[in-house]
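In practice, a research group might receive sequence data for several interacting partners and want a quick structural hypothesis before committing to experiments. The following worked case mirrors that situation: the sequences arrive first, and a predicted assembly follows.
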Amino acid sequence: MTHTFPDLVISGVLVAPFVSYAAAAGLLFAMLRPLLRIVGFERAFSNPPLAQLGIYVVILAVLIVLF
Amino acid sequence: MAHRGRTRTAGEDLSLVGAAAQPVRFAGVPLAHWLFGLRTWLAMMLALYVAFWMQLDGASSAAVTVGILALPTRGQVFGKALYRVIATVIGVVASIVMAGLFNEIRTLFVVALAGWLALCVFAAGWLDGDRASAAVLSGFTVAIVAMANIDSPQDTFSSSINRGAAIMIGIVAVTLVSDLFRAPDLLPTLLGKIDTIHRDVKNFALRTLESDAPDPVEVARLFGRISALRADVVTLPLESIAGRTRAAAARQALSALVGEVRAARILASTFQATGEDRHAWRARIAEALHGGGVHAEKLLDHCASVIHDQTGDVARLIAARGATALITEDRRVVESLCDVESGRGPGRGPGLPVYHSGRAAARNALRVFIAVLLSATVLVLSGWPSTTFALVLVAALASIAATTPNPWRFAVGTLIAMPVVAAVAGVTEFIVLDGVDAFPLLAIAMLVPIMVCCLLMTSGNPKLMPVGTSMVFFLPLVLSPSNPQSYDPQSFLTTSVLCISAAIILAVALATLLPTSDGRRRRWMLGAVRRECRDAVAGRPIGRQSDPEASFQAADRLGQLAGLAYRDDAERIATLSHALHLTELTFSAMWVRSALADLDPGAAEQARSAMAALDPLRLRTVAGSLGGAFPGRPAAAQRAAAHWAAADMARTAALIERYAADIGLAHSGALP
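A structural hypothesis for the assembly, expressed as tokens:
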């Protein structure tokens, strides 16, 4: 069965599904940041920005697969 | 005094963190600058490729966005990108509203556009850094989206969506490339700068303790250097996960640096007033400032014992308090720097408000309003086709110029950059590319121009840097890469002529329409200093800021005063000295007023009436009778509190005596 993407419509304006997923992933990542700071996430990587990007991509992929 | 996780002492040099090991160079240019150029080129090509793939109209906006966000460090890029998104959303909404309201009445549309731009420039006058840029972007987004579709208002919505999409693609491209290719962080540079200023502040403190008349220009320039770091501090939260904590610690450090400069001046004036032996104190303070750690603890213990010694000399007691304040502020700087470096700390710090002149903001707004209206009139009367493009550019450039420290220099930079960009774009399009339509060839053709622009931006030459900054986003605007690429020479020539015309109109407008001279700015700032001083002496509140915030804002204002042009050095010294002393009187009066809250009511009322009457003699009399006037405290604490209050009142009395005439106050009379 084909995976259907939910449409987000704001006042008659259709928002592309990928944009919705990207925005939701950004929001989730922002909520995760304080936790990452507490566990010292940045100290575990030689390139912390790339590691953060990786986490964002993982969150985005999970949202796309699950919803 | 224990410190959380401190890893270095006050005397330890941060140069290993801050920087400069000798940079690797290639062809005389640091490798970091070459890498910056390559990253910018790569981000621009990525943005263009994605925009072409998505078949966006105005795909060149994605490249222009990358050009605007081309900054050497990640924190600066992310800060500007975030505010650009917010500003674009606001601008797009305003465009749709304006197009809906005024699309049938063109004259009113142009007036409304000029009014909206003026409003955005006025708002930008009360903001700084990326937020000010975002405010003007909201303004000229309306010009780009609504004005450009004035003949077809039904296309406004799709045009705004295309522009928003192109901007988002540009932002994603530049942030992705910055992360993948490890663009340098702002943090090490910022740490190095704060450490350098800290060293200079310590040296200034020791020189001030030796001298009876410290140089006001040096003080104002130090304040200017400290407040200039604020723009970097506000971008720290976006740079890393611990960024918010680091930013709070950095704000603490900057606030403490301002406090250290003030404490040094107060201590020096204390030595002058009391005749206490400054040399002995200076030697101990030098040991504490440069040695840090144990030496600072030793001095603080010594000061504490002097303060608690009930039989001690009053002058020594007051000097001990001043020395304690100085060393405490110095230690606050050191601890804050450690917190910035480690990313740990309380996570809250003082705000760092900067001084904004409402009159300058209003004047800039009015200038933009008139410039846009006049330009529109001239362009409409000219009857040339496609002049909306020129008007949009004039609106954008006039708004951006209003946020720069020196609008005239920006206009001159644009005037130089625009013909150069037109020439470079022409060579690239008609000689290098010459009709090809393959994207890889477009990317290769744009490599050299973009690298040159980026190298100019990072050259360090104050004349070349603004030219490079302008060129890097004008180039994709004039070249206007599209899919398929148009190689129409007439269209290119029209675009180039309109761009150069817009730059000329901007320069003429800035030179003739309500120019704000440095002399005028100086008068406004001094007027603000005098008003604050009158309010402080009269006991009226000055804003709702805390003491550290008010202190930082006053320091920023002095720094801005130091940056203005003067007829000669004598005028500079006189103006800065005047402003500095009035600022000191303001804070001295504020501290006296806050001490009155703990005083015995009778003594407090006498002090208040002496301050309101601006009678230095009565103030000194009250100061001399303060022993035992702090009920509810132990005897030793009473003595100390009495002497602090007396010292503050004596200093205030001396400043009133000397400077009351300058702020329009009369001795022993009611306040106007």
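Before designing any experiment, note the following. Residues 17-38 of chain A form the longest helix (22 residues). The helical segments of chain A are 17-38, 48-66.
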